[in-house]
Every structure is written in C-alpha cells, then in structure tokens.
Hints:
Layout: H1 2-23, E1 38-42, H2 47-51, H3 54-63, E2 68-73, H4 76-83, E3 90-93, H5 98-106, E4 109-115, H6 122-130, E5 132-139, E6 150-152, H7 160-172, H8 191-199, E7 206-209, H9 221-229, E8 236-239, H10 245-254, E9 258-259, H11 267-274, H12 287-292, H13 297-304, H14 312-327, H15 333-361, H16 365-372
Parallel strand pairs: 1-2, 1-4, 2-3, 4-5, 5-6, 7-8, 8-9
Helix pairs in contact: 1-6, 3-7, 13-14, 14-15, 15-16
Amino acid sequence: MKPAKKVKQPFRYRFAQALKLAAKRPSVQHIPDNPPESIVILAKERYGDCIMLTPLIGCLRKKYPALSIYILTFNQNIFDFFRTDSNITAVYNTKKNPVRYCREILSKEFTLLFNPKDHPSTNFLIQTALVRARRKISHYNIYHEGLYDELIRLDANTHESAKNLSLINLVEGSSELIECKPYIPVMAVSPDISRFLKTVAAGRYTGINISTGHIGGHRSVAQWGELIDNFMNEIFVIFSSSRDIEEKRALEQRHKNVLQSPATRNLYEVGEIVKSLKPHCGYIHRGIEKMCEKDTYPQIIHLTDRMDYLSAHINNHGVCMLVEKALEVEVPDRVKYIRTIVDELNRIASHQLWWCSFGMDMGGLTCFFYGLR
C-alpha cells in the first residue's frame, strides 16, 4: 500500500497537467451573468462535507429563485442524500447512471461550475474538464490552475460552510458575510422508525454510533460492550451503518441497558431519533478538561504538557498561574523571569516549525531543513 501512496501525488500532478493542455480555460475577463441561470456543483464523497454544502445550496435558492441547481455525485449514498432536497433541480450519479448524466449534463452548457474542494481529486478534475460552463470556479490549489476561470483564496482554517458560501461573494462581487444554517433534506421515514419514535421518551436515552472511526481505529463489539457496562444507569440507542448491523444487533441482545431499535436507512431517520435523545456535552476534543476534574494539581501538569509539544511550558505556565491565583500564592520575580524566558523559547520553536512545515507544503524543501536546524 505504501508504494501506491508515494506515486499518487506525482500521478495527479501529471494528470492535471494533461487536462490543462486538453481543457485549458482561455484568459479572458468574464462578464458575470446576473442573476446566473444555472450551476453545476460537484459534491464531495462524505456526509459531513455534504451537510456543510447545504448552506450554499439554501442561500443560492433564496437569492436566485429561478436558478437551476444541478448536483454531481460519485457514490449512491451521497446521491440519496441530495435526491429529496427541494432546493435542488436535479441530482446525478456519474458512475451508476452515466447515460442520464451524459444526456442531461454533458450535452448542455451551464452558467457556473463549482468545485468545493481545495485539494486535488481525479474525479473532480475530470468532471471539470468534461462539463461545459461559461464560468468555472474552485478554491486555490496548484493543480487547479489553468482549469478554472477563478480560484478562491481563503485561510486554511476557514470553516467548511464559509468556504462554500464564498462562491456567492465571488459571483456577486461583494465581501458581505453570508450566514445560512446547514440542514438535512427531508427523506422518507420507514414504518418501523415511525413506530419506534412514538415509543421513545424525549430526553431519556443516550445514542452511540458504533460505525465511527476509520479503518484501524474501528472499535470491536467487546470494546463497545465494555463502555456500555461502565454506564449501567444509562439506556443506550445504537446507531450503525448497514455494514455494522450485525454488531448493533449483538450489542442489543447482550446488554440490558441497550434499547432495541430498527436499522436506519438514511441520515434523516438518524436525525429524527437524535432529536429525542438526551443531549450530552462531547469531550472528544476537550478530554483534558474532563480529566482535570478528577486529577490532582501535579497530575494536571502532565496533561497540559502534552497539549502542544513545542509550547508545552506555555500551557503549563497558564495552569500554574491559575492555581497560584486561586491559592493567593505570589511567586518570586526570579521565577517569573525564568518562566518568561522558557515561554519565549517555546514560542520561537513553535513558530519555527510552522514556518518550515508551511514552506515545505508550498514546495520549498530548503526552508524545511533550515527550520529544523
């Protein structure tokens, strides 16, 4: 597997270069269609990314009621997700129904084409070259140069929905902050789920999704069972994808505090059940805060020390100052000087790593070596 990963990026680069030669966009200034008549949006392959695409779709429909919105998908799950969205004109599965896709998409010309990815994708590059549009827009990436008329440049930490909504700013030529909430399109609810929802008391049960995690990080039935046994006072509802349905049934049969529930067929059914569950504050990204509730002061230092491996002392310093203030302890000036010196050395090291790794991401390997030195 590792050798295949090594040649993937060079292949994409050569492939993108070939597409640029075959479908290079002319260097002309486009007069924007106001309002645009039609748009083709390439949908990403994951549910989370598609949910973050819905604010853009909703805003487009609100701003341009007559706009024809076409979504191109690359797997059946995402096709089913968008298929019932009333804001969308038509959805196409480019792989499962290529005849319809060719007849209704490749034979026409559209006002806009939008690729929401800011990284190279072979499927998305091919669709960009094949679909005819007067104005092709995407986010900046070196592979996208020459294939799109305009590339949006945003900070790497920009929220996914904001990155998608930036298309409207570009189309309208404005910098107005656009707000629109994500949504899940209304889908059919099975009779089994409808009956189950009538029996669920609101705010009484806790949900667990056993299909979370990537390959290699997927928990076993025994591990989920151990977690469930640690909370015998809780009653759980188990969610799973179709491939994990046997594990879901096994957990429901083995544990008395797991409520038997029908399998969900789509994300909308999951959402309807979640509305009735007990809300819990998640600690996935804030586990240190939860652990600090039971640890002693010296033990907490070992946790904050690991929050940032190049700014460990800065995080420790903050905790120490908090405890000292609470205990009304005044440390000597010499301690303050030493702490500040170490903080600054940590800050320089942290910034230096950012600089060298960012330079490497931009293609400058030399600055990476200088930064590490």
